[in-house]
């Protein structure tokens, strides 16, 4: 790749990072191309050298941010057996610190909302959510059983739904309670899934 191509790729990534900030904080629906480019410190004229339309950008940024977060998850919980992996994901996700810093957090909750309102992102969200589900099932660099699919999808659903509700409630006691209750419920549910997967103990010989 030549210097010009490298610069073009770097600029495109810069635009994606700017769009990701809008996606995670206020959503892309109400953001214009001018808003995204202004946040990136670039002119609107340069946008179309990288994307054909705002819809193309919306599709790309959902895929980019969800892939980035999925790979971060896989690396962080590398080598852990499935129950520990999913329990850790819940515990680290459902925190006031994450709730209060959406710009540097996971895009899943806002991407889900965006998919409801923007057809351009619906397909991207569906496909990337499936990849996320598979990552929660199989993990990375671990031997042994995969997580039950119901546990993987259920954990993701708890994380996304709880974060949407907690942010809607703002920084309040009610919001904190939502996070704490969801984490407690999820941990208990995962224990139940783990018990169901354990082979029955052999009866002791008399």
What is the topological layout?
Blueprint: H1 3-25, H2 33-39, H3 54-76, H4 82-93, H5 96-99, H6 108-117, H7 119-138, H8 149-168, H9 173-197
Helix pairs in contact: 1-3, 3-7, 4-8, 4-9, 6-7, 6-8, 7-8, 8-9
The unreliable regions are 202-206
- Oligomeric assembly: single chain
Measured as a percent range, the helix fraction is 55-70%
**Helices and strands: which structural class?**
mainly alpha
The name CATH uses for the topology of the domain at 54-197 is Tetracycline Repressor, domain 2
CATH architecture of the domain at 54-197: Orthogonal Bundle
User: CATH first level of the domain at 54-197: which class?
Assistant: Mainly Alpha
- So what's the overall shape? globular
Main sheet: strands, sense, barrel: none
- Overall mean pLDDT stands at 90
Q: Indicate the proportion of strand residues.
A: under 5%
Question: Can you count the beta strands?
Answer: 0
Helix-strand string? HHHHHHHHH
**DSSP helix count?**
9
Rg estimate, integer Å: 20 Å
The CATH superfamily name of the domain at 54-197 is Tetracycline Repressor, domain 2
Amino- and carboxy-terminal Cα gap: 73 Å
Please describe the structure with a list of short key phrases separated by commas or semicolons.
single chain; mainly alpha; disordered C terminus; 9 helices; 206 residues; Tetracycline Repressor, domain 2; 0% strand
Describe the structure.
With 206 residues, the chain is mainly α. It has a domain at 54-197: Tetracycline Repressor, domain 2, CATH 1.10.357. The chain contains nine helices and no strands. The chain has helices at residues 3-25, 33-39, 54-76, 82-93, 96-99, 108-117, 119-138, 149-168, 173-197. The relative contact order is 0.12. The model is unreliable at 202-206 (pLDDT under 50).
């Amino acid at each position: 790749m030549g210097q010009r191509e490298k610069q073009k790729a770097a600029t495109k990534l810069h635009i994606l990072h700017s769009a990701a900030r809008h996606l995670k904080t206020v959503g892309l629906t109400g953001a214009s191309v001018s808003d995204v480019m202004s946040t990136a410190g670039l002119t609107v004229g340069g946008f179309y050298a990288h994307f054909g339309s705002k819809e193309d950008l919306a599709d790309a940024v959902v895929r980019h941010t969800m892939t980035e977060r999925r790979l971060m998850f896989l690396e962080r919980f590398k080598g852990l057996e499935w129950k520990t992996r999913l329990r850790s994901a819940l515990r680290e996700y459902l925190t006031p610190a994450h709730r209060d810093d959406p710009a540097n957090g996971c895009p899943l909750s806002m991407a889900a909302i965006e998919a409801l309102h923007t057809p351009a992102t619906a397909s991207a969200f569906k496909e990337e959510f499936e990849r996320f589900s598979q990552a929660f099932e199989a993990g990375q660099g671990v031997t042994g059983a995969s997580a039950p699919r119901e546990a993987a999808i259920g954990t993701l659903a708890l994380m996304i739904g709880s974060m949407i509700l907690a942010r809607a409630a703002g920084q309040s006691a009610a919001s904190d309670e939502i996070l704490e209750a969801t984490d407690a419920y999820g941990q208990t549910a995962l224990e139940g899934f783990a018990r169901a997967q354990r082979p029955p103990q052999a009866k002791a010989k008399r």
